[in-house]
Write a structure and sequence with these properties.
Metallo-beta-lactamase, Chain A; 7-stranded mixed sheet; 5-stranded mixed sheet
């Protein structure tokens, strides 16, 4: 009996979340491995934070990513967040992980340990764990702590959040209290034991994001949450 698989046209789902904010995800991946991709529409350009696994083309199968200029921002360089980053002309990232974006080896992106059949509820058509590779996606420009991603009418401050990985960043819109947190904090088990994690830096980064006047937190995985849950997650961290 042939193993079921999911076609490209059924792989992605777009969920309107708030005014001008959309969640793009891959619903056939188990939640722990499933990257939340956040699209924010601006007056002059859109911002896409992270790009998922990359087995199927993200731009080809999510039409709204072809409608307007897109600034693609990488929260960090792990495989589940940068699989389709190469498809975008403008790619922003923190310089601490520049070498990984330029040469995304499986051991550097964590694909060597995690990119396998166990990720999926149902795998995509043609999936082969042994053959999976992230395509090089060198940053076209770097962003550092305090820089601003300007969408015209919306402005997101870059918050450098090392700990999960050295070049992790979050993006904070003060006008709305919107925090796009990447993998420094989400509503699940926080990962601080990869080959380039740093628990001391993790604690410092968590304290920084907890001090922000956030009203809503969009993490790199799992569901979004408010400031009370952010406080709970930060105070509950045992690293």
């Amino acid at each position: 009996m042939q193993t079921p698989s999911i076609r490209a046209e059924d792989w992605y789902e777009v969920v309107p979340f708030a005014e001008g904010v959309f969640l793009i995800h891959e619903p056939w991946i188990h939640p722990f491995f499933r990257c939340n991709m956040w699209l924010v529409r601006g007056a002059e350009r859109d911002m896409l934070v992270d790009t998922g696994l990359g087995h199927y083309s993200l731009r080809k199968h999510v039409p709204m990513l072809r409608e307007r200029p897109v600034v693609c921002v990488s929260s960090h360089a792990h495989f589940d967040h940068i699989g389709s980053t190469h498809e975008f002309d403008v790619r922003l990232a923190h310089p601490a992980e520049a070498a990984i974006f330029a040469d995304p080896r499986p051991e550097w992106t964590l694909a060597a340990g995690y990119a396998n059949e166990e990720m999926f509820m149902v795998p995509p058509h043609g999936w082969d764990s042994a053959a999976y590779r992230v395509r090089p996606c060198p940053a076209t420009a770097f962003v550092e702590d305090g820089d601003v991603v300007d969408l015209g009418d919306r402005h997101f401050e870059v918050i450098h959040t090392p700990g999960h990985s050295p070049g992790g960043i979050a993006l904070f819109e003060r006008a709305t209290g919107t925090l796009i947190a990447g993998d420094i904090v989400y509503d699940g088990d926080l990962i601080d034991d990869t080959f380039h994690s740093d628990k001391t830096a993790y604690r410092t980064s968590l304290a920084r994001v907890a001090a922000l006047p956030a009203r809503i937190v969009h993490g790199g995985h799992f569901q979004s949450f408010g400031p009370t849950r952010l406080t709970q997650l930060v105070t509950g961290y045992k690293g």
